[in-house]
Amino acid sequence: MASITMRNLVKNYGNVTVIPGLDLEIADEEFIVLVGPSGCGKSTLLRVLAGLEAIDGGDLMIGDRRVNELPAAKRDIAMVFQDYALYPHMTVRQNMAFALEMRGLSAAEIAPRIEEAAKLLDIQPYLDRRPKALSGGQRQRVAMGRAIVRDPQVFLFDEPLSNLDAKLRGQVRAEIKTLSKKLRTTMVFVTHDQIEAMTMADRIVVMKAGIIQQVGTPEEVYENPANLFVASFIGSPSMNFLPVEVQADQLRLVDGSLLPTTLMAGQAAGHKSLTLGIRPEHFEVVGEGQGIAADIRLVEPLGSDTLVHAFAAGQEVIARVSPDLRPVTGQRLWLSPASGKAHLFDPETEVRIDGTGKVN
């Protein structure tokens, strides 16, 4: 087990800077999820941690060791890949034993490690099968078992659920989270799926263009996004954004309607125009003329709730409403932000403004 420290970490590919100086502290036994869109640098950062990519600047510490020049084989890290990377001609048992054999461990030392990992992952019945005889979820468990038997200081996961169907993805996701609590080992998990990030992480690291946008618990990142990018990326469906103007300490939408002044008390100070952010579940349906007029163009019943796609104040918005409302296409709803649940962003800097009128 070990902590990870990155100080002004830089990674270049030729003249292109992919990570332009990154600082991050990961605590011992912490489950960190790196999340962001394709090309944001999260997988590159994981490969740098693993020693598969050279560092072009800064410092990388694993525990109390500086590992900038240390080869991958000596970093005591185990990595689980997206494509499982199992040897097709070997049995499950042989796949799990291979790395230990290369390290010179005896058969007597290897056997109990395999049995323990197989029991932990519920793959004991498959130890003598080859990968082609396994399902996708079983293969991913074998890939995790191969990492577990090495007893590393740090586990790295590079989008390991991407090849699984939706139901299996949810199952394996829960298994990895449970596994992290049992093993009590530092884990760094890369994904572009914000739902995976929200459900698995102790802390989420949101990245864009190689730069960390926000670090925090899933609740912190969801409830208090640092900027427009984080607000739009975290949450499904995405947060709604509406341009507003500040007039005499009131907020007015482009259609001329006013929002309750008490909702944004103090936040609008010193600004003439802002961006209002509201999550779909934070819209309340109110009486006619009491909120934002929203004309429904599409209804998505989800069983436990219903998503309403509508045009409001010149923008398309999504509201999550009770299925008992039974909204229909063409209907007009009046929506109001729930008290204390809306956000304001500076349209120029894109940062969120807190209740004192200051940016974060």
UniProtKB/TrEMBL annotation:
GO terms for biological process: carbohydrate transport. InterPro entries: AAA+_ATPase (IPR003593), ABC_transporter-like_ATP-bd (IPR003439), ABC_transporter-like_CS (IPR017871), ABC_transpr_MalK-like (IPR015855), ABC_transpr_MalK/UgpC-like (IPR047641), Mo/tungstate-bd_C_term_dom (IPR008995), NA-bd_OB-fold (IPR012340), OB_MalK-like (IPR040582). The keyword Phosphoprotein does not apply. GO terms for molecular function: ABC-type transporter activity; ATP binding; ATP hydrolysis activity. Residues 4-234 form the ABC transporter domain. Belongs to the ABC transporter superfamily. This is sn-glycerol-3-phosphate ABC transporter ATP-binding protein UgpC. It comes from Paracoccus alkanivorans.
